Structure formats: C-alpha cells, structure tokens
C-alpha cells in the first residue's frame, strides 16, 4: 500500500501571521475546550475571558476571529453584544456566537452588521465545523465570490457534515437533556403584526390560499415524521416559506426562533438557510419598531409573488393533498 504524508499550513492572515482568535465565555471549562480545539486547528489564541470583559468595554484589540458563548443574555449583555456587533463589523473580524434556543431571538436581534455564524445548543463537533468554515475563509487564494448555486450547495454539504458531527457527539453524553425541535414546534407562533402585509405587488398577482389551507399543509408535512425518519424529508427552505406565507396571510410576525423550529432542521442549520434566503432576496429582516434589539423575519415582495403564483399554478386541491 502506498502511504502519503499530508501537511497542512496553519491558517494565516494576509501578512502570513497565524490567525488569532479571541474567546469569550463565562464557563472556564468551555473556554479551555474551545482553546484546545482552536490550537489543534492551527489558530493562535488571543484574548480570552468572560463576557464581563465585553460588558466593561475595556478590550483594546480583538482577534481576527471572535468566538463568543452566551447561552443566556440580559439587558446589559444585549447592549454589550450590540457594541460588539458594530466593532466586529468595522474591524473585519469574523464572529462565531454560540447560544441557546431560549436566548436566540435576543442574540439574533443584536447582530445585524457583523454577519456572525450563530450556533444554537451546539455540540463540540458543531463548533469544530464552524471553525472549519473560518478556515475556508482564511485560506490563501480563496478570493472568488461564490454564486448563489455555490452557496446552496455549500449549505447542503454543511448539513451532511453536521449530521456526521451530531452522530459523533451522540456517542457521548454531551447532548443529553436537550429537547428536540420537534418537541417544541407548537410552542412558538408568530406575533400579531402592527402593520399590514407589504403592499405594492403587481395587481395581476393571484391571491394566496387561505391561511387554514397553509396550516393544514404544514401539519400534513410534519405528520410524516411520525412514520418515517424526518431526515428523509428535510426541506428547510420550503418549510420556512410555507410558515412565513401562512403568517403573512394571518398578519402575524415571525420570530427567528419560531422560524428555526418551523424549518424542521437543527437551529444552527436553519440560521444558515435564513441567511441564504435573505441574501437571495426571498426573506427580509424586519427590525422591531419598539425595540431595535429585536428582529423578525418576513417574506419579501418577490417571495410573496412567487408563492401566490405557485399555488395558483398547482391549484388549491393539490396544495391540500400534498
């Protein structure tokens, strides 16, 4: 058998220096674990500390990458995250934020400029996958902009990699006690909208189906998981489109947490799909007029038009039976 030796260069910045990472987490054991994984990937560890260091605002230098763990966040913490968002966006650093499903809406609302990777209830394997994405961005020669097809293909590939990571993590007890998304789908519904649905669409656009038809279709799709492996039918983009269309017809707003649950995939994966759909012009991020630190997700005019024409094309009876 022929054996080959492979060598890997450590990730470096444009000057050829090792990429530095700042790590902030209140749990010391987690900071040590993250630092161990980062060193193994060839990164240089920069500033490490608890979240209080961010709140105090005394940090002079951030790393090329900032990795933050905040499973819970209060009002003071949200203000600190908003400052961090602006600072990271100005510095050009890359940001990874791990949080919990309960804190997701607050955390998501704080980051509207730095485009972070947000990991929800993540395992160690999923965090390593996120670090791998940083490697892809920092590797020399990676200058070509990805097309929309490239991004969608990368999302599908990421799902497969994360599935492997979850299988690896399931061999340990680290994921014990976490509730699945399927257990929580009915806990989150859209909030009453203060404004009417978007206007200005083409007058020739056909009407959308009744919201009850859409909710029935969603329930039918979810029922498949009772009899078959749910991963056989994973289609997060379509499930989110259906949920947002129903909310549009009901004049309701949808939080990012609710949309992640509606997607039927792990929330970290759902967040990347949401970002892709925003980048593609199908979803809009809508800031809360009363609280700028909160944000909702809605269909763009283009998506509303597309969904209306889709249902007109297939016919309502087909939509009910699908």
Can you walk me through this structure?
With 322 residues, the protein is α/β, with parallel strands linked by helices. It has helices spanning 28-40, 51-56, 75-91, 104-110, 124-138, 148-170, 181-184, 211-223, 236-249, 256-263, 267-279, 301-314, 316-321; strands spanning 20-24, 44-49, 65-69, 94-99, 117-120, 191-192, 252-255, 283-287, 295-299. It folds into two domains: 20-145, Rossmann fold; 181-321, Winged helix-like DNA-binding domain superfamily/Winged helix DNA-binding domain (Arc Repressor Mutant, subunit A). The protein is built from 13 helices and nine strands. The chain has a five-stranded parallel beta sheet, sandwiched between helices. Strands 6-7-9-8 form a four-stranded antiparallel beta sheet. Strand 8 (283-287) and strand 9 (295-299) form a beta hairpin. Helix 5 (124-138) runs antiparallel to helix 6 (148-170) and helix 10 packs across helix 11. This is HTH marR-type domain-containing protein. InterPro entries: CheY-like_superfamily (IPR011006), WH-like_DNA-bd_sf (IPR036388), WH_DNA-bd_sf (IPR036390).
């Amino acid at each position: 058998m022929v054996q080959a030796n492979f060598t890997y260069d450590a990730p470096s910045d444009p000057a050829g220096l090792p990429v530095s990472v700042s790590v902030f987490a209140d749990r010391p054991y987690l900071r040590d674990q993250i630092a161990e994984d980062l060193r193994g990937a060839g990164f240089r560890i920069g500033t490490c500390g608890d979240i209080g260091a961010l709140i105090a605002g005394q940090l002079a230098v951030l790393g090329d990458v900032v990795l933050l763990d905040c499973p819970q966040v209060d009002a003071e913490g949200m203000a600190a995250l908003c400052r961090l968002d602006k600072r990271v966006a100005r510095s050009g650093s890359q940001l990874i934020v791990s949080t919990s499903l309960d804190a997701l809406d607050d955390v998501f609302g704080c980051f509207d400029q730095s485009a972070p990777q947000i990991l929800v209830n993540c395992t160690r394997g999923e965090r390593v996958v996120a670090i791998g994405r940083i490697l892809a961005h920092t590797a020399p020669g990676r200058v070509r902009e990805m097309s929309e097809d490239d991004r969608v293909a990368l999302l599908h590939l990421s799902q497969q990699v994360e599935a492997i990571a979850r299988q690896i993590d399931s061999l340990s007890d680290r994921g014990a006690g976490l509730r699945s998304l399927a257990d929580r789908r009915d806990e989150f519904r859209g909030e009453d909208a203060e404004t009417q649905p978007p206007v200005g669409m083409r007058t020739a656009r056909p009407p959308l189906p009744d919201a009850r038809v859409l909710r029935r279709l969603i329930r039918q799709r979810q029922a498949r998981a009772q009899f078959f492996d749910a991963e056989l039918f994973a289609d997060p983009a379509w499930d989110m489109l259906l949920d947002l269309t129903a909310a549009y017809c009901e004049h309701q707003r949808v939080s990012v947490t609710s949309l992640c649950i509606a997607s039927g995939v792990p929330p970290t994966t759902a967040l990347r799909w949401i970002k892709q759909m925003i980048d593609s012009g199908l979803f809009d991020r809508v800031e809360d007029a009363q609280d700028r630190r909160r944000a909702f997700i809605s269909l763009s005019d283009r998506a509303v038009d597309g969904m209306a024409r889709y249902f007109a094309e297939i016919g309502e009876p087909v939509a009910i039976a699908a």
